[in-house]
Specification:
This protein is of the alpha/beta class and 300 residues long. The chain has one domain: Ribokinase (UDP-N-acetylmuramoyl-L-alanine:D-glutamate ligase, 3-Layer(aba) Sandwich). The chain has 9 helices and 13 strands. The chain has helices at 40-50, 67-76, 124-128, 141-154, 169-172, 194-200, 240-255, 264-279, 288-298; strands at residues 3-7, 11-18, 32-38, 54-59, 79-83, 94-100, 106-110, 133-136, 158-162, 178-181, 205-210, 213-219, 224-227. It has a 9-stranded mixed β-sheet with strand order 5-4-1-8-9-10-11-12-13, with helices on both faces. Strand 9 (158-162), helix 5 (169-172) and strand 10 (178-181) form a beta-alpha-beta unit. The longest helix has 16 residues, at 240-255.
Length: 300
């Protein structure tokens, strides 16, 4: 079974669906409510498991009563949790999401991991195990750096979910093999040519998602292109980017090396298909059953 280590944020998400988002001072009745584990690395881990891979999530949740909600969700969806936070007093990171019924657009308020300092486990080599790819989201900086350094030492490709700029990236980017950028991601010192700047730092592969617009890719050794995602009717976009990153990391793990220009069109097309599958389903986990059927033919 193909293994992926996913390192980063795990939150407790309260997700409510509404016909229309409320205006300031207004109250609305939700059509449904769910509590699930969230966060970039966490949603990516659920995607890896749904596609038939072995997903190991290295994160910091702790022992607060709220954490049980996230633990149960991860266990139900086949994610192996490695929790380095033992604090049982402070609550975990919490997100509140509102998803609009007619088009699946979401609004999120999140506390993330601000103020939570955690150290990597002593046996990080053991945690990495047989993982053939590592995905980091840049949250919990010490975890991200230690995992990337361990992976680099062992020749395991490192994928960065580059959703927004974080100070840790100064040290983390030189350890990255595939920088998967959001449309908004920019380096502060080179905002107008960030992709080229990432290659100048030594990163072999840079990709950039743009919602329903084509995903762009470029290789440091030469080659670039775009891959158009499927046209679908979106019913729920919450976590779709995270799912895309999980599918990409899983594809790279199956490849077993840093992808080349010949590999990227197929890898990105597969990630696009999985993300499209996610947005076609209402609810945070409703897409997983369909992904499992798809994944059984990908990684038996």
């Amino acid at each position: 079974m193909t293994e992926v280590l996913l390192v980063g944020l795990s939150t407790v998400d309260l997700v409510q669906r509404v016909e229309a988002a409320p205006h300031p001072g207004e109250k609305v009745q939700s059509t449904s409510v769910a509590t699930v584990a969230g966060g970039p690395a966490t949603n990516a881990a659920v995607a890896v498991a749904a596609l038939g891979g072995r997903a190991r999530l290295l994160t910091a949740l702790g022992a607060h009563p709220l954490v049980e909600l996230a633990r149960r969700d991860l266990a139900e969806h086949g994610v192996e949790l490695v929790d380095v936070r033992s604090d049982g007093v402070s609550p975990p990171p919490v997100s509140a999401a509102v998803v609009r019924e007619r088009d699946g657009e979401r609004t999120v308020v999140s506390h993330n991991a601000a103020g939570v300092e955690v150290l990597p486990p002593d046996d990080l080599d053991g945690v990495l195990g047989r993982a053939a790819a590592v995905l980091v989201d840049g949250h919990h900086p010490r975890l991200a750096l230690a995992a990337a350094e361990t992976a680099r030492r062992r020749g395991v490709p490192v994928v960065l979910d580059a959703g927004s700029y974080k100070p840790v990236l100064v040290d983390l980017l030189p350890l990255v093999d595939v920088c998967a950028c959001s449309e908004a991601f920019r380096l502060p010192d080179r905002p107008d040519d960030t992709d080229r700047a990432l290659h100048d730092l030594g990163i072999p592969v840079v990709t950039r998602t743009r919602g329903q617009d084509p995903v762009s890719w470029s290789c440091r050794g030469g080659g670039e292109g775009t891959v158009r995602p499927p046209e679908v009717t979106a019913r729920d976009t919450l976590g779709a980017g995270d799912v895309w990153h999980g599918a990409l990391a899983f594809g790279i793990a199956r490849l077993g090396r840093v992808p080349t220009a010949d590999d990227l069109p197929g890898l990105l097309a597969e990630a696009n298909e999985v993300a499209a599958l996610r947005v076609r389903h209402r609810g945070a986990r409703a897409w997983v059953a369909a992904a499992r059927s798809r994944g059984s033919s990908i990684d038996p």
